[in-house]
Write a structure and sequence with these properties.
The complex is a heterodimer of chains A (138) and B (95).
Chain A (H helix, E strand, L loop, with lengths): L1 H15 L2 H12 L3 H5 L3 H20 L12 H11 L3 H8 L12 H26 L5
Chain B lengths: L1 H33 L7 H20 L3 H30 L1
Helix pairs in contact in B: 2-3
Amino acid sequence: MANSTTERSKAVPAQNLSAMAVLAPAVGWLIPGGGHMLQKRWIRGGLLFISIVALFLLGLAMQGRIYKANGGDILDILGFVGDVGAGALYLLALANDWGQGAIAFATADYGTKFMIVAGLLNFIAIADAYHIAIGKKK
Amino acid sequence: MRITLRLERRSEAAICYQLSALSYQLSAKKITETGVTITLNHFSAAAVFALFASIVFGITHREDTRDMVRYGLYCFAMFLGGVLVAGWAMWVLRR
C-alpha cells in the first residue's frame, strides 16, 4: 500500500511535465505574462504584462542604459542577465540601439535599474507560469 | 592653511554642483527635443517601482485572488514605508 502511494507520487510530476511546461516559460520569457495568458490566466497575464512592460519602457524613457553581453565587470554581467529577462523588449531595444546613450543626469541611473528589475520580475513570472503548467499552482 | 584648503574644497564642490545642475538642465532640454524623456524625482520613481513590483509579487507569490491583493498591498506598503524610513534615517544621520 505504502509502495503504491510512493510510486503514484513519483509518477505525477512526470505526467505533468507536458509541452505546456516548456512552452509557457518560453512564451513567458518572450512576452511578459504570455505564459499565463497561454494557460488562460488572462487577468494575471495582463497585469504582469502591463507591470513589466511599463517598468521597462519607463526605464528607457528615463534614459537608462541597456547592458550588452559582456565578460567584464561582475555588475555589468549581472546587469546583462537582468536585462535579458525582459525577452522581446530587450531584443527590440538592442535592435533599435535604444538605451545606449551616455547617462546625462542622476535619475537616468534609476532607468537602468528599472529595466534590470523588469527583467528579473519577468524571471519570477516565468517560474510562476511553469508552476501553473506543472500543476503546482492553480 | 587647513582653513584655506577646506574653503577651496568647499568652493570646488559648490562649482561642481552648479556645473552638474547646469549640464542636467541642458541635457534634459536637448533630449526632450529628440525623443521621449521622463524625469521622475526620487520619491515618484520609488513609488512607480513599488507599484509594479508589488503587482508582480502579489500575483506570483500567492495562490488565491484575495491573498494576491492582500500581499500586493502589503509589499507596496513595505516598499514605500522602507523608502520613507530610510529617507528620514538619512536626514537624521546628516544632521
